[in-house]
Amino acid sequence: MPPEAWCSKFRERVELEEITITMGRYVQLGERTRNVIFIGESGVGKSSIINLIADADLARTSSDVRPCTAEVTDYDVSIRGSTYRLWDTPALNETSRFRFSVSGPERDLKSFLRESYFDGEIDLLVLCVRGSRSHRSMESAYKTFCKTTRQVAAPVVIAVTGLEQLQPAMDTWWVQNGRKLEELGLVFDGHACVTCLPHHPRRQASKEEIHDLLANDYQWGPSVVPGSEDYLNGGGGCIIA
């Protein structure tokens, strides 16, 4: 895209953010498809979460930790009368570059997030993790992809899987770990502790919880001032890098 086109898109985005700040919240003008991007390491269940949301086998899944998503792929689903476009991405720890199912040359996840941001097509970023993995393993993904996204582009939430044996409820994981994550600088606008296992007695409750996570009216606004140098540079993060 020519530099002047990028500048035009940036000015349009700044105007949108200024409207957002004035109103004191992140707003969607008119009914449109909401874009939700799922990221995470191998084996955390990104594709399984998408299938849980859709209540259908849309995305390919694997029974082990081998990656099963080779391209960024989108799926349109309806949640409570609204249309959502769910973006499934390759595992963060497998490769930093990959082919896209949409037109255009090969681009990495950073470029995808940046272009989606300029097009106004990031409504929510979902970091998918397994509850059994260490907090430190989440830090790299959060600091590389989530921190700046939350500052300038959209709310960031966390979906935790692999909690089937946790008692008395899967949300116990968040009670035990939410504050620890915040102390590490991993701040989220929402969370869901779910199981994606077929026929599990908590599956339906998990589906409702993840629907709540996506459909929530987040009181979000950019924390980096539009038009500032930090905003243009993505606050040192990946979105505008």
UniProtKB/TrEMBL annotation:
Signal peptide span: none
InterPro entries: GTP-bd, P-loop_NTPase
Molecular-function annotations in GO: GTP binding
Domain G: 36-159
Protein name as it appears in the record: G domain-containing protein
Short name of one Pfam family: MMR_HSR1
